[in-house]
Write the structure tokens for this entry.
Amino acid sequence: MTRTEDGRVPSSRREAREQERRSQRRSVAPAIRAAREPVATVAPVVATKGRVGLRPKGRDASAGPSRGRKVMHTLMSMGAMFGVAAMLVSTSISGTSLAPQAEASSLSSSEVAENDVQSLGVVASAADAAATDLVRDSYTAKAYVPPVRFVAQRPATSANFSYTNNPAGSIQWPFVHPAPISYGFGPRAACSYCSTYHLGVDFTPGAGVPIQAITEGVVSAVKLDGGGLGNHVIIDHVVNGQRIQSIYAHMAWGSIQVAAGQPVSVGTVIGAVGSTGASTGAHLHLEIHADGTPIDPFAWLKANAN
């Protein structure tokens, strides 16, 4: 007969059934708990890498990998924490390492001078800088002019303008020796850039032949590349009470030997034959002006040279 927990007989059939169900539950629960308890069994483990051991079976067999994963998670978490700490430390060190540089950059000029630090020289003022620029750029570019080589004069071959020069005369021809004359004074057949009326006489002794002053006087002008006459010199004379000007044109570059205001005497070398200005070849274009009027140089020299 089923009894209650306190040892008495159930008073009703219902109470008896409940008491019986309680007894069944109490008897089944220990059996279930006993079935769920792990049974430790040991199986032999095959030798690996020279070691022989026992490998657990059942629930204990899966416990190894689970613990390994937990250990790995723990190590990864600790590694992440160490990495964050290292970043914080490196950032703080970088910030503090820049502080001395900032302090060094804030040094005053007097402190730098006291520490004898090498410094670059600077211009004292804007005026000095401007003066320096002027000095640096105060130059001009000029075309190279080769030096003139004076050459010996060839004897005259033209009979149309024959003359003789007296090296001892007070008035002389522009060359020591008579030189050929290609054009005389007066009308002529003009070239594309020549005048139809020739105001002088063209002597052709050869390029580089020295040109001399016809008589004493004073240089009134020296002109370089002065239009059609090219490089030329103008000398003022007084002959028999008359104001005479002699003009020597087309002289070679760099050959002029006189300057404006310079007094010259008869036979003074003033330059060399060239072909500057409106010229078709090396020659001396000589003009004579009497009181400002161009006259025939050949006729005047024939009458006055002695």
